[in-house]
Amino acid sequence: MDKSILSHFQSESQTVEERIALGKALRKKFPRGEQGDYQPAPDRADPVSVLIAQGETRIPELVPIRHARMLTSPFAFLRGAAAIMAADLAASTKSTGIMVQACGDMHVANFGVFASAERNLVFGINDFDETLPGPWEWDVKRLVASIVASGKFLGATDDICKEGVLAAVKSYRNRMHEYAQMGYLELWYATISETDILNTMTGSARKKAQKIIGKAHERTHMQVLGKLTDLVDSKFRLRENAPFIVRETHTQDGLPINEALSLGLESYFLSMADERKTLLKNYRITDVVRKVVGVGSVGTRCWVVFLTGNHHDDPLFLQIKEAKPSVLEPYLPTSMYANQGQRVVIGQRLLQAAPDILLGWFDLGGAQFYVRQLRDKKGGLEFDPEKVNVKNLDQYSALCGWALALAHAKSGDAAMIAGYVGNSDELDQAMVRFAYAYNEQTEKDYQAMAAAAMSGKIEVAHEGG
Asked: 117 with 359: CB under 8 angstroms?
């Protein structure tokens, strides 16, 4: 055994109380009230230029679709502007230096319910494209900024938005104190079950949660078979919807799609644990399409692979998604993983209570990808003003704060964070100030993007036609 490893396991560890005290001591150097400060850096990059630079690394014909999606509202803009906010957090905010596995793109639409390996539904973060070890504050600040932006998009008053932020941060603090006292194995196995979700909700929020959970239970691979495929010449084929879902003969690099899939899936297979390989090798590829996904991800390469197992009632749908370097990477140590897909997968396994059993990654022609199941008992909140009761924003925000605390506690030092955040509402109030200050920045950036679209500086392809 490596002596350094042996030394680690034989060294004396600090107690929970000692680590809480270290967290408290950080308040002198980084007062909690100052976490609410935000002023754009004097040399802040033009936000439109940041988006244009990102577009240069993506599929050209899809970039205008990304712009269109971001321009639907300031909240949609915030969702697609993770790179812009990462730069702002690095340049214009303070950090305690306590590191966690940061999500990197933490906002209220990046949570949902999904199935564990035991087929139980749990609630948690569901997007990890930007994950990287980073300051816990960055995720909290992006979350609270998104609460205000989404609230305003849904027509909420300032009081409702403020209560949403306060609820999220209070929930984060309280849960972090709870996790600080847990044994490490107990914490590792901790989840937010569907019972936990319903027990924290009241009134119409509870009814909405029940509806989301009910839909998630129905979103099996058989449900996907009926929704995404057509029966053509006695064979199921994935349904096209150009330009969002298209069947390609070649990849963007000119490689025949069958050859690319063979190479990619062979490499993906090697990234999996042996018992997962035994399961996967029973399936055969039936069809594949390229799909446009998300807001910030539009323009990256993404395929849906339809496989069939024992019979037609045994479908498996995999999503292959391109992974680029995290938007956090310019401001933090480079990922220890050479393959960006592996970075995403390992980050998901650290942050998510019950990660997908078929997660894996591969490299193809210099591009890197990760693989996961598509829609396997997954569900999220629909940010539709006609469907969401904004008066429940505080209850949903509290649930998000809980899930974020669990993710950070699993990957960081819960006791130190608990010591810093404390029991008062000082951090909560500071985060309200930050959320509103950054929302003002988001609205300015959104207007700058809208002006760029009007002037023709950026191309916008509206999805309606």
From this structure: no
What pLDDT sits at residue 465? 44
**Residue ranges in the chain whose pLDDT is less than 50:** 465
Question: What token pair was written down for 254?
Answer: 């000119």
DSSP state of 317: E
Instruction: Name the DSSP class of 253.
Output: T
Which residues on neighbouring strands pair with residue 300, listed in sequence order?
298
Rounded to 10 degrees, what is the CA torsion of 252, 255, 259, 263? -70
Note the pLDDT of residue 339. Answer: 95
Beta-bridge mates of residue 134 = 100
Which pLDDT value is given to residue 234? 66
- Residue 280, phi then psi, degrees to nearest 5: -65, -35
Strand partners, 256: 250
For 167-314, strand residue ranges (E) read 229-232, 235-238, 245-246, 284-291, 302-308
The candidate with the shortest Cα–Cα distance to 257, out of 304, 318, 315, is 304
In the beta sheet, which residues pair with residue 155? none
* Torsion from C-alpha of 389, 395, 400, 403, nearest 10 degrees: -140
The token pair that represents 169 in the structure block: 């941060």
User: What per-residue confidence (pLDDT) applies to 184?
Assistant: 94
CA distances from 278 to 199, 236, 282, 358, 376 (A): 39, 25, 7, 11, 19
Beta bridge partners of 379: 113
Sheet strands (E) in 158-270 = 229-232, 235-238, 245-246
Alpha-carbon span 397 to 402, nearest angstrom: 9
Q: Which residue has the tokens 């899809």?
A: 62
Tell me the β-bridge partners of 370. 321, 361
Tokens 């997007």 belong to: 127
Query: Could you give the CA distance from residue 410 to residue 283 in angstroms, rounded to a whole number?
Result: 34
Neighbours of 340 (CB within 10 A): 22
The H or E element containing residue 8 is helix 3-10
**Lateral strand order in the sheet of 379-380:** 121-125, 111-115, 379-380
